[in-house]
Amino acid sequence: MKYRSIGEAAAALDIPDSTIRYYEKMGLLPLLERDKAGRRIFSDDQMALLGTVMCLKNTHMPISDIKQYVDWIVEGESTLERRLEMMNRHKQAVLDEIALMTESLKGIDYKIERYARQLGKK
Amino acid sequence: MKYRSIGEAAAALDIPDSTIRYYEKMGLLPLLERDKAGRRIFSDDQMALLGTVMCLKNTHMPISDIKQYVDWIVEGESTLERRLEMMNRHKQAVLDEIALMTESLKGIDYKIERYARQLGKK
DNA sequence: TGTTGACTTAAACCATAGTTCAAGTCGTAT
DNA sequence: ATACGACTTGAACTATGGTTTAAGTCAACA
Fold first, then answer.
1. I need a surface site. Which of B9, B85, B86, B105 has the fewest CB within 10 A?
2. What pLDDT shows up at residue A122?
3. Is the C-beta of residue B8 closer than 7 Å to nucleic acid chain C?
4. Which residue in A110, A92, A27, A115 sits closest to B112, CA to CA?
């Protein structure tokens, strides 16, 4: 199994190393292994977890909620139902936010049209 | 012309009064009038501007950029081109962010499916 | 006339999400 | 052997976007 350094993991996900250290400190990356020198090493499983964390972060889930989710993963099968419910609720929140952005974009498009018209007919 | 109090303006846009005061202090609401008692009064024009500010805020434009935009509005017609360019750039940023969220949502949907399957077949 | 309720101010406070710093360790390539 | 780059730590620092507080003013209604 291939292990990655923090630099490789960060490059793979296009985020700064410092963010990964911060996430670990916040408890989003439990069970992260170290080599003999004390350096973080990322297994495929940890890369997958980090990918999930990034999905949640990219959709604006607060760190505290991501931590709850990760804690449930560590806790095991007994939390499957809670995890499913959390993901369903989050999905709806994301859809709502996308809808708000899309709606607000209409106001922006309206400005663009008006400015373009004013500049064009001058 | 109907004027609104800060409470009415806030209720119309479903935001706290304190946010409107904060936006005014940040310079997002220049030319906002006051009544004899010193209270803010919102004309239809100011309501429209506030609506635009909310569109920009809802699409995650930083306060400092919104201020630049409002400053250009106050400056007048000579800034039309810059405003158009700013709105076009912002529109692209919003589309990019929606795309990222939509993509990240796929990872979440995948989790939902897996959890649902695991819970269903048990 | 007096008590509400909505408003005013400036300044302090808060949460969130990182980033930066200083000082030090490790392993490999020359 | 040593220099280099990538890594380590904890703590301090930053930026952003508000919210809260304290003390006070004002207009209208009972």
1. B85
2. 62
3. yes
4. A92
